[in-house]
Amino acid sequence: MKQIVKELEEAQSILLKHVIKPGPEKVSLEAAAGRVVFSNLHAPFALPSFNKSPLDGFALNSLDTNGASQTNPVFIEIIDEVQAGDTRNDLKLKQKTGVKVMTGAPLPAGADAVIRKEEVYYSRGRIKLEKELSHNTDVILAGSDVRQGEVIFKKGDYLTPYHIGLLAALGIQEIDVYKKPVIGIISTGSELKKPGEPLSYGQIYNSNHYSLAALVKLLGGDACSFGTVADSISKIKVLLERAINTCDVIITTGGVSVGECDLVRNAVEDLGAEVLYSRINIKPGTPSMAALKDDKLIISLSGNPAAALISFELLLRPYIYFIKGSLEEPPLKAVEGVLIDGFHKSSRQRRFLRVRAAYEGNKWVARQTGSQDTGILKSMLGCNALVDIPASSPPIPPGGTVRIILL
Ligand code: AMP
Ligand code: MG
Description:
alpha/beta, Molybdenum Cofactor Biosythetic Enzyme, Chain A, Molybdopterin biosynthesis moeA protein, domain 3, 7-stranded mixed beta sheet, elongated, binds adenosine monophosphate, binds magnesium ion
């Protein structure tokens, strides 16, 4: 079988060319965080919907304060009191009158300024003012936050908790979002058992399925499990067919290297899928494949847990972000920083180190989270970034400058 070898960025863009965007569904406010807006949303009314007071004080007409000074104070008769939540909409100020207001109170007609309680002398039903107020002093104007009809969210916007607050402020209970992409996960390997099952000598527990399903979920996808399958072309084919029929994209792990038991490519080709690449020039994660069948991607990762996770981060994180409907740039952000502990090996291939990165002082620093051997799973713990070492690099001295990909 001829290998189709790609650089990481080529593989990433191949995947992004095959984006199936799911249709819309309505979700409640409570379920909307992390989802992506399906269609532009207009404000049903202005925010605030009435002129209101930002403080505790007195609302009045600024024209009545003309000429006020310490030597020439102006007196305003306080004729009423308005609290937040007062629903009277027929209050109106006559000349030289005002109302006491609390924070959030609607202003009566004719009031265009508010003076802070602490700034006036109040006695016998009137306030004494020793300065002029201008139009709109300390007034939150209707529509100053959101105008009625304004597009508040656009198709493709990612809904954060802040978005949810704005939806609630506008009284919106449901919003159209993209359906979660359904991501099928198939684990291949005759040695695999499910946690809970007894293990015989030589067998291992399937960890990839659980870590990848958790990643899919955290990224906002719907992880759909197709269980574990032995290294058998016909058995892998059956599961692949089932997954293609029900999922938007399928991830497989294991069986994509060049050994006699690496049969995923055979199964994929038997199904009539077109192989887009079969190796990526990165370590860990060189064995990696993508194939297209009925417009759906089958993305196959190495079974090696660390390799599977790192390849997922580099390939599937941006891809899932995209198929969720988000129109923003894929979320892998790279920064320059220093590798505090250096790296002792020279790297023939482009290599990704598991590190913990932080912005300290005025620069990004990264520290290895443990052994970088492909077989080590534990050093994924605490890993929040990958150091990207170019092919043909000599060892990196402690404190050497590196490119850090933040996850
Ligand atoms: P493979 O990619 O099939 O060559 O597998 C590489 C290594 O990863 C082997 O040691 C496998 O036993 C191990 N492996 C494969 N699949 C899984 C899995 N789902 N969970 C944990 N380890 C796995
Ligand atoms: Mg295997």
